[in-house]
Amino acid sequence: MMSTFLYAIFPYLALALAVGVGLYRYFFDRFSWSSQSSQLLESRVLYWGSVSWHYPIVIILLAHLLAFLFPTGWGVLLGRPLRLYLLEATGLALALCALAGLGLLMLRRAMHSQLAAVSTPLDWIVLFCLLLQTATGILIAFTLRWGSVWYLHTAAPWLWSLLRLNPEVQLMTVLPLVVQVHAVNAFVLVALFPFSRLVHLVSIPITYLWRPPQVTIWQRRS
After folding, report:
1. Rounded to whole angstroms, how far apart are CA atoms 121 and 59?
2. Which CATH fold would you assign to the domain 2-209?
3. pLDDT band for position 168 (cuts 50, 70, 90)
């Protein structure tokens, strides 16, 4: 019963929350649709942590997406041992870099008094979920080698079964616990998406291309 909920029901609930609440916030509470930048409070550690986190994690997510969308082509890419080794090593290096960046961001938020004061419990929940997702990914890379290959035959078909509205739960239940945690936690992050700062990921400021320029005038009191 638990497996059915985690791998056949919860993904749909998470997606429904992400889309429904996300659209509600965008159309009816647009001013809350923000990353709520804290750069003015502290910028040096933010720069190094943000760069170390964002660029590697985007590349890793893109690799997951490409393997899901084009499993045949991805399988051909991994068909040669040298390419497989290079891809696995690159993915692991990127994940370690992302983990270091996330650690910096969490340390910054905890150690800076002003940042700690403006941080909400949800901020920390999201950060710990991101930490869990990154750490389990690294653990998978270390202990369950060639994950980029077996991903094509397990997780990717399960995701496609969700799209077909016919979840194949058995594809996930046979995998090691760390892989199952990694998969479920991914949908936990999807569910948290519309309630947190993560919404800024899909906020592309296209309207900035044609909106009138804004002029900021500082007034200093003597």
Report:
1. 28
2. Fumarate Reductase Cytochrome B subunit (1.20.950)
3. very high
